[in-house]
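Blinded run. Sample ID left blank on purpose so nobody reads anything into the name before looking at the predicted structure. Input follows.
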Amino acid sequence: MNERAYIRALIEDIQQELPLIWGRPIHSIFIGGGTPSLFSAGAIRQLLSDLRALLNFSPAIEITMEANPGSADESRFAGYREAGVNRLSIGIQSFDSDSLKRIGRIHDGAQSLAAVQKARVAGFDNINLDLIFALPAQMPEQAVADVEQAIALEPQHISHYQLTIEPNTLFHSQTPDNLPAEDDTWEMQGLAQQKLREAGYTQYEISAYSRKGRRSQHNLNYWQFGDYLGIGAGAHGKLSLPGEGRIIRRSRTRQPEAYLQHCADQRISLQQELNDQDLIFEFMLNALRLTDGFALDLFSERCGLPVSLLHAPIHQALQQELVTLKNDLLKPTDRGLQFHNDLQALFLDVEPDYSRSINPVIEF
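Blinded prediction complete.
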């Protein structure tokens, strides 16, 4: 694929969306999906330069780029840093080479360690490491070893996810029969949380841990049901349109070749307007992942719906000790975080029966 042509297509894409986001400050940019670190530093520099000319960057904007350890290169990392990328998210997954092979990763443990070192030398002082636990044939002590190794590297942020096997993928069709037992999975998570806490990392979301002042703005915007615009092949976004009283989701054409061939206004493959039930479920799905919870007013601001719609399911959640509610601050308990699916299910069938008035506050 011609990277110059792809960058041009991205800019055409954003230009098409400008009327929807005009004047809104941009607080974060996340360059991810596939392996963006295969792009040259010059291409990333061109992309960010063009975006600065079109958009209203916040002075403290967070610009994150995903990197695969298998494509890590010190000079390339330095080029990304000079181009304006100020946060690097490295997809370590595991430091154990055998575990990486089992999940089809192209890098090994040595490359994982080297990638972090190269990022440091390149000047990055805000690094996230992605780890996955409950891998095939993984024992609790191996999962803990991954976390201990990550801590030893002293990143500012660690994401610690349980393995999820997505439907309609090759891995799903070949699901291994040696996945850890449920008790072992709980043990992995509990021991990892303890290690991270002892090392000074604060859990602010089910799978996210950070040093003080290093929470990801991209993550927080997503979990707080903020607006975000997705451009590029397979990208998706969510936008509030206060002038029209609508909140929409948009998805782009998945295949890069088709994305390049289409005109800007033909790259949107799906547009969905969120109804009241969608808004309630999606807001709670995201916001109840945050350990600090959220002020109930945020629900009305982001969804344009009255908080009274949440009273019945919140009452049930309180009875089941899944949440606490104090001074209009709703927080998941440790039990609520552990049984997040059960908590979320309480908000699945809320059925508004009135004519709403949407006036969401935009914090783009």
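Unblinding after everyone has recorded impressions. Residues 169-173, 353-364 have pLDDT under 50 and may be disordered.
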